[in-house]
Amino acid sequence: MNTEHGEGQQHPIGLYLKIWLLLFVLSTLSYMVDYYQLEGYLRWTLIIVFMLLKAGLIVAVFMHMLWERLALIYAILVPPLCLLVLVGLMAVEADYTFLSRVIYFGQEG
Amino acid sequence: MNTQQQAVSGWDSVSADWSSDKDAFKRVPWGKAMMWIFLLSDTFIFTCFLTSYMKVRMTTTEPWPIPSEVFALTIAGQSIPLILIAIMTFILITSSGTMAMAVNFGYRRDKKKAALLMLVTALLGASFVGMQAFEWTKLIEDGVRPWGNPMGAAQFGASFFMITGFHGLHVSIGVIYLLVVAHKVQRGDYDRQGKYDIVEITGLYWHFVDLVWVFIFAFFYLW
Q1: CA A64 to CA A97: how far, in whole Å?
Q2: Minimal CA–CA distance to B156: which of B34, B36, B69?
Q3: What is the mean pLDDT of residues A34-40?
Q4: Is A80 within 8 Å of B200 when comparing Cβ atoms?
Q5: How many angstroms separate the CA atoms of B66 and B73, rounded?
Q6: Which terminus of chain A, N or C, has fewer Cβ atoms within 10 Å?
Q7: Burial bucket for residue B71 (CB in 10 Å: 0-12, 13-18, 19+)
Q8: Is residue A73 part of a domain?
Q9: Which fold has domain B69-223?
């Protein structure tokens, strides 16, 4: 039940406040992407970069993944990689679904 | 040890085997490991929702409604894009911050501060749900339904209500969970048990709710 920090996870409060501030800044930046109506690849890249940074900070620091043992980290973080395969498959065949819709539902509209 | 294993049979032997102290996650309380595994399964559920949303958005033959305009609010005569969603994002991040500090004070045996911070977290969560209810009401008044809407692709409503509804349900359950644990903290239950793991486990669930919102915010509202 003990970690190297004595009981549970103990870290200075200042660390949480810094991460909190960082998350605020990143959220503001991602809101700015919409506010200034950036378009195309610049928009999508920025959205994904800010999203991944926020997600990483939350999991690593707030959820203490940074200080967990490797066995737990791999058990939790590796399985979601399957989901990337799902997303990839669905994206790859999207044009096929789109064309089917154009062919079969196109005339009605 | 051996005699004990032979003594039980049937379902008892199944549970005896699974709980035979051969822990894979060293020095991780079982409750925490189980919460992580639950969150892993929840990750799969939310990703399935977001993937189906991606799919319908990529394949719809009608234009997708522009979220920036759909979720704009008029404040003091000015239309500000996505402002409510931005406020909701900041509220949820703030609640994550207070939760992280509650965990910290829990482990320091400062149960007054821990319970108070959990209460603040729950209040922020409740206000998030309140704003979501406001947002739903506004969209329903605008004619958005799961089967259609006046702005464009019919699947917009289905994706919106499904994804934000499921997330809102998670926040609501989280608020109840937080209130129950906060009550137990200030009553001193965990002093008697001698451990404050439960606060960290509750925190894991709460941070996960925030984490899911990060992805919904990026893919549904900003994309």
Answers
A1: 41
A2: B69
A3: 88
A4: no
A5: 14
A6: C
A7: buried
A8: no
A9: Four Helix Bundle (Hemerythrin (Met), subunit A) (1.20.120)
CB contact under 8 A, B203 and A62: yes
Provide, as residue numbers in chain B, all residues whose Cβ is less than 8 Å from the Cβ of A79. Answer: 40
Residue closest to B68 by CA, chosen among B57, B81, B58: B81
Neighbours of B139 (CB within 10 A): 19
Between CA B33 and CA B151 the distance in angstroms is 45
Which residues have C-beta within 8 Å of that of residue A26, sequence separation ≥ 6?
Answer: A50, A53, A54, A57
Q: Which residue has the higher pLDDT, B193 or B7?
A: B193
Domain interval for residue A6: 2-68
Taking CA–CA distances from A63, the nearest residue in chain B reads: B204
What does pTM read for this prediction?
Answer: 0.89
Number of domains in chain A: 2
- SS3 label, residue B78: strand
d(Cα B53, Cα A3) in Å, to the nearest integer? 41
Q: What is the pLDDT of residue A4?
A: 42
In B, minimum Cα distance to A103 occurs at B61
Residue A74: inside a domain? no
Closest CA to B97 of A48, A54, A30: A54
- Tell me the two tokens of residue A16: 């949480």
pLDDT in tens, B105-144: 999 999 899 999 999 999 999 999 999 999 999 999 999 9
Same-domain pairing of A55 and A96: no
